[in-house]
């Protein structure tokens, strides 16, 4: 006969849920849902998206048009509010945040770089004044503002352009100023939506290098949404989004082979979410003509997925 647990034991079990999902991560999305309603029609832009990003990481997010990338960045930047699920950035809960907290969050916890160069900077201010502006809003002293603006423009290789207005800068230089503006208040997280989208490949490379430098030298956790293969293939982790969910992940690392030669190891994974869902790559499904249902077999060290054969008609 099983012994009835004591009240104290039941209380312990109820409160002991093990480590919190995403504890220690800088970005936590757990079963994130965003539904838009337009003209009486509901669009499910995010349908249970899970994502963890560690402090100091630099990741790229890729996905087809309409897969939910901008929706995700808008939520992470505090511009939009999710319909359900968990979204936390630098320990701030984005679902329960009040209006005043949202303002502080947007001013001090996250920095944002948009694709449209003109959207990132005020045209009538110089590069240095643009970088100082968020620090003025945050009440930083004049001395600190000046020192930090000069330091940031220097780190990003545009120190000598501090007195120019955006119209006197190239697209790539404007984006580098935009990065300096975004990190002026030392945010925990830097979010960039297609930051190289409007640039030619050489300039795009300079902007990506600037993002990498900020990540490496200031330690800012960085998330870049991109269609640019140069960006998505250079970072250590690229997360693929499909139909509003994280579906795949590519990890890259450096290693040394037996002869001492440097190797770059690229490993591609499907994402197994917290409730056990996996998205099969579209070309696997098409290649094997899988439809509606599949048969799963548990093997000693893997799970096999088979096309379900048609049931023979019963006589
Ligand atoms: N404000 C809105 N109202 C209604 N539907 C929206 C809204 N914003 C986005 N959507 C829809 O949500 C889905 C995801 O859009 P989202 O902009 O996040 O995709 P995306 O991956 O960023 O696409 P792209 O690469 O083209 O920018 C799309 O079906 C889109 O039409």
TrEMBL record:
Report which superkingdom the organism of origin falls in. Answer: Bacteria
SMART domains tied to this protein: AAA (SM00382)
Q: Which InterPro entries match?
A: AAA+_ATPase, ABC_transporter-like_ATP-bd, ABC_transporter-like_CS, ABC_transpr_LolD-like, MacB-like_ATP-bd, P-loop_NTPase
Q: Which parts of the sequence belong to the ABC transporter domain?
A: 27-268
Stored CDD domains: ABC_MJ0796_LolCDE_FtsE
Keyword Cytoplasm attributed: no
Q: Name one GO cellular component term.
A: plasma membrane
Is ATP-binding tagged as a keyword? yes
> Which GO molecular function entries does the Swiss-Prot or TrEMBL record give?
ATP binding; ATP hydrolysis activity; transmembrane transporter activity
Which controlled-vocabulary keywords does the entry list?
ATP-binding, Nucleotide-binding, Transport
Provide the protein name. Answer: ABC transporter ATP-binding protein
Q: What is the species of this protein?
A: Actinomadura logoneensis
Upper lineage is: Bacteria, Bacillati, Actinomycetota, Actinomycetes, Streptosporangiales
């Amino acid at each position: 006969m099983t012994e009835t647990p004591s009240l104290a034991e039941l209380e312990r079990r109820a409160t002991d849920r093990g480590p919190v999902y995403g504890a220690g991560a800088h970005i936590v999305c757990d079963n994130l849902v965003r539904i838009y309603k337009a003209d009486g029609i509901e669009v499910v832009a995010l349908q249970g998206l899970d994502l963890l990003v560690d402090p100091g990481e630099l990741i790229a997010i890729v996905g087809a048009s309409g897969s939910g990338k901008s929706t995700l960045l808008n939520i992470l930047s505090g511009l939009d509010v999710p319909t359900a699920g968990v979204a936390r950035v630098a320990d701030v809960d984005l679902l329960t945040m009040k209006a005043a907290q949202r303002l502080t969050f947007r001013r001090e916890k996250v920095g944002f770089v948009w694709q449209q160069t003109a959207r990132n900077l005020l045209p009538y201010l110089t590069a240095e004044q643009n970088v100082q502006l968020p620090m003025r809003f945050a009440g930083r002293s004049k001395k600190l503002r000046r020192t930090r603006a000069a330091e940031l423009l220097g780190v990003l290789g545009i120190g000598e352009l501090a007195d120019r207005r955006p119209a006197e800068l190239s697209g790539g230089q404007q984006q580098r100023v935009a990065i300096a503006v975004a990190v002026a208040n030392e945010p925990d997280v830097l979010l960039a939506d297609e930051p190289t989208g409007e640039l030619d490949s050489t300039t795009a490379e300079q902007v990506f290098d600037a993002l990498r430098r900020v990540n490496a030298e200031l330690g800012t956790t960085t998330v870049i949404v991109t269609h640019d293969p140069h960006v998505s293939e250079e970072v250590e982790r690229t997360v693929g989004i499909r139909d509003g969910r994280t579906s795949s992940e590519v990890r890259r690392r450096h290693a040394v082979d037996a002869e001492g030669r440097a190797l770059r190891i690229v490993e591609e994974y499907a994402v197994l979410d917290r409730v056990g869902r996996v998205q099969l790559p579209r070309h696997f499904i098409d290649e094997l003509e899988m439809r509606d249902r599949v048969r799963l077999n548990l093997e000693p060290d893997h799970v096999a997925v088979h096309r379900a054969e048609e049931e023979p008609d019963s006589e």
